[in-house]
Amino acid sequence: MSDLAKIPFILFTMILTENYVLVQFLGICPFLGVSQNLSSSLGMSGAVIFVMTLASAATWAIYTYLMVPFGLEYLSTIIFILVIAALVQLVEIAMKKFLPPLYKALGIYLPLITTNCAVLAVTLLNIDEGYGFLPAVADGFGAGVGFALALVLFCGVRKALDRARPPKAFEGLPITLVAAAFTSMAFMGFSGMAESLFG
User: Fold this and answer.
1) Rounded Cα–Cα distance for residues 48 and 120 (Å)
2) 12 vs 85, 106, 118, 197, 199, CA distance in Å?
3) What is the number of domains present in the chain?
4) Dist CA 50 CA 88 (whole Å)
5) In a domain? residue 65
6) What is the chain's pLDDT, residue by residue, as a tens digit (199 residues)?
7) What does the alpha-carbon distance between residue 140 and residue 125 come to, in Å, rounded to a whole number?
């Protein structure tokens, strides 16, 4: 299968069947921390899509053209974290200058993208899967869109939870985690669809 032919399959799987948050349970900290407010959810979604897409492109190029020729593949995790940290700093500076209210709303969760395991996972997955440049970028973009979809959907779920009256023992974080589990189960209904649609 050519690189271009792989792209629809990669996008579908990263957004729905292999969603990093709701299926693989990566990036839960910002998912739970930012999903209380729609505007901050959208802002975080945009930042994660940007970082994941650019990190996928940059790490693929660095790995292919610098690390492999010099036998530095064993440093991939450290180097990829440094690339992600630099991109997050770029996003943080841009938001602070051009979108101060959103920057304040995101608070600590914006720099936490650096340590978001979903961002690191997508860059490492690109290498493990042996993707070319275009599939790697599509993988990063699809993973970011999947993260955004999960965040925005769960924001709606949390709005409904605000009106609910759970038992005392379930108030706060416990009912939020139960709701996240049910949302995750809904996404697991997509498993197997990618192979039947693109196989």
Assistant:
1) 12
2) 27, 28, 17, 10, 12
3) 1
4) 9
5) yes
6) 677 888 998 999 999 888 998 888 888 888 888 888 888 888 888 888 988 999 999 999 999 999 999 999 999 999 999 999 998 888 888 888 888 887 887 777 777 777 778 899 999 999 999 999 999 999 999 999 999 999 999 999 988 888 888 888 888 888 888 888 888 888 877 877 767 777 6
7) 10
Residue 150 tokens, joined = 């999960």
Question: Which range marks the domain in which residue 68 is found?
Answer: 3-188
- State which amino acid sits at residue 70: F
**Which tokens sit at 104?**
């304040």
Contact status, residue 23 vs residue 151, Cβ threshold 8 Å: no
Burial class (CB in 10 A: 0-12, 13-18, 19+), 73: exposed
- Cβ–Cβ < 8 Å for 105, 41: no
Residue 197, in any domain of the structure: no
Q: Kindly state whether residue 199 falls inside one of the protein's structural domains.
A: no
Residue 74 lies in a domain: yes
